[in-house]
Design goal:
The protein is of the alpha/beta class and 573 residues long. 22% of the residues lie in helices and 19% in strands. It comes from Brevibacillus centrosporus.
């Protein structure tokens, strides 16, 4: 029997970017909020002088323990899913701040096309352009409606950038200027401008200069040390929840964080939630936290899993296409790209930052004509200088022996003499791509694991090949003197090698409860006092990193919660 605790206004499940934003916005308005985080406490001091690539990048110090909870995967329904026992395709973060602590800081706004993708595609090409089984849908919100929330997130985080010439209109410039332009980035800029493309510096949560945000939080500028992805930032220069929104929520005195608290069920009466049940992993004690409003702000997989385990919302059935929880799982097409080797130039590739890059959107969204192409959408193409750490980076030309004298010679020669131009492709949902509960495998508490059913489609292969060719053209224009390697082949999805942690969908947003789980305030159609915040709401994945769009939707969700509270109930419109 779980011990029942005193009731609060709001309980949030997971204290990362979504949870931190919700807590900050609600506590400023006087609501009492409890944040349940299954991982441990974190603070900036934990990362002072800890540039340990082996511990963090290779041994996944900040990631979820897969021996206690993982996912299962299968490529199609006719095969048995098996657990992911070691990290590969994507990484699952844990701890206070969530994946927002160890992200790179690349902070894009999805394109206007993304939010009305079905309508815009049909309008330009006709309905036959959408292949059988592709379940794209409009999001129930437009870019213009979401723009003020993008701006709010960027000002809170101090995003450093310049206007995207092919992106949606902005109400204000970025709060801080773009990051430094390195020699390699300058080469990319010159080459792409010669090709009449539209390069711009990547929007970065790694501060280009000291900044104080509207909440009064001051942070220092980036030092370009190259330890961003998979690491916490020892300078506080990389925006993360622990150094931005969480301190503001705590300062109000209305926010209580309980770490090591593993939420296992949403409690409800069939129409509304009454609270959550969680286990204190330090003692094994089961506790019930009653609340007027429940907000799920954990990772994509856990948001869907909690709803399915709690029997809240209608599970998606791929056979009929009915139901919504688990629908439209999407990933990212990350394979297309090109590498060029240079005999006559040397670069300082070991200096960098997680979002130090220049990119372009000429081949993203619907910014180019797809009439004669066998895919829709596209990819953001970029040259990044993230900072090559010594263990994981040892690029040599194809055909080089994998060991011995020749390998050592090529490693030394090309350590700072290669540049990569990469394509981050959009991922479209299909009827047979979904999340559900695995009937066989369970976590350490005996609860079923979430199961992913997914594979790359012809849409993805065509997109990857097209964008890889464009990357190769850019590398050639940059003057690579050795063989240019173009990675354009996309085979079946393989969960073994790392690709991207940009998982989306499962609790998608839309204009109708028939085709979506939440409305454009991320409020559940089937349980009005439950809000589900995160990239789980994305009805497809764009050619960008998801955090900027997720942050904007989090601010809108906070506004919706306050409206719901003030109105006394009902679906917010």
């Amino acid at each position: 029997m779980a011990k029942k605790l005193p009731k609060v206004d709001v309980v949030i499940v997971g204290v990362g970017w979504g949870g931190g934003i919700i807590a900050s916005e609600l506590t400023k308005q006087g609501l009492t909020v409890v944040g349940l985080e299954r991982g441990k406490e974190r603070k900036t001091e934990d990362y002072f002088m800890v540039h340990d690539e082996l511990r963090y990048a290779m041994r996944y110090e900040m990631m979820q323990d897969l021996s206690k909870e993982t996912i299962t995967f299968r490529s199609k329904t006719s095969v048995r899913a098996l657990p992911m026992r070691s990290y590969g395709s994507f990484l699952l973060g844990t701890g206070l701040g969530g994946s927002g602590v160890h992200w790179n800081g690349q902070t894009f706004r999805f394109l206007p096309y993304d939010f009305e993708i079905r309508s815009k595609t049909i309008e330009r090409y006709g309905e036959k352009k959408i292949p059988d089984g592709m379940t794209i849908q409009d999001w129930g919100i437009t870019y213009d409606q979401l723009e003020p929330y993008f701006d709010k997130f960027e000002r809170m985080a101090g995003i450093s950038g310049e206007e995207n010439p092919l992106g949606g209109k902005r109400s204000q410039p970025y709060p801080t200027p773009p990051m430094k332009m390195t020699p390699s980035i300058k080469m990319f800029q010159e080459a792409t401008k010669k090709k009449n493309l539209h390069p711009y510096m990547m929007p970065s949560a790694n501060l280009s200069e000291a900044y104080t945000n509207p909440d009064g939080v001051s942070r220092a500028a980036c030092q370009y040390c190259g330890y961003c992805e998979r690491f916490g930032c020892e300078y506080g220069a990389k925006a993360d929840p622990v150094v931005t929104v969480i301190p503001i929520a705590k300062k109000t005195g209305k926010f209580e964080i309980r770490t090591h608290s593993h939420v296992r069920r949403i409690l409800h009466n069939g129409k509304k939630a009454t609270g959550v049940m969680y286990t204190d992993v330090t003692t094994g004690e089961e506790l019930e936290q009653p609340a007027d409003i429940v907000v799920l702000t954990s990772y994509v997989f856990n948001n869907a899993r909690l709803l399915l385990m709690s029997k809240l919302g209608r599970p998606y059935d791929p056979a009929t296409g009915k139901g919504v929880i688990g629908k439209n799982y999407a990933y990212q097409v990350i394979r297309g790209g090109a590498v060029g080797f240079f005999d006559d130039k040397e670069f300082n590739l070991y200096a960098g930052a997680g979002a130090l890059a220049m990119c372009l959107d000429d081949y993203n969204g619907d910014n180019f004509d797809h009439k004669d192409l066998n895919f829709i959408h596209g990819a953001n193409i970029s040259l990044s200088q993230l900072g090559l750490r010594p263990i994981a980076n040892n690029k040599v030309p194809e055909g080089t022996p994998s060991w011995g004298k020749d390998f050592k010679a090529a490693s030394l020669k090309y350590a700072n003499r290669f540049l990569s131009v990469g394509a981050q492709g959009a991922s479209m949902p299909f009827r047979h791509h979904f999340l559900d509960l695995d009937p066989t495998y369970k976590d350490v508490f005996g609860d079923p694991l979430i199961r992913i059913t997914y594979d790359f489609e012809e849409q993805d292969r065509q997109l990857a090949a097209y964008c890889a060719d464009k990357c190769g053209e850019i590398v050639k224009e940059m003057g690579a003197t050795e063989k240019i390697e173009i990675n354009k082949k996309l085979g079946p999805y393989d969960i073994t090698p790392y690709q991207s942690t940009h998982n989306t969908g499962g609790v998608i947003m839309g204009a109708s409860p028939d085709t979506s789980a939440v409305n454009n305030y991320l409020q559940m159609w089937d349980a009005e006092n439950v809000f589900v915040v995160g990239a789980s709401s994305f009805a497809h994945n764009s050619g960008y990193n998801p955090t900027g769009t997720m942050g904007a939707l989090s601010y809108r969700a906070a506004e919706g919660i306050l409206k719901y509270r003030k109105s006394g109930g009902g679906i917010i419109v």
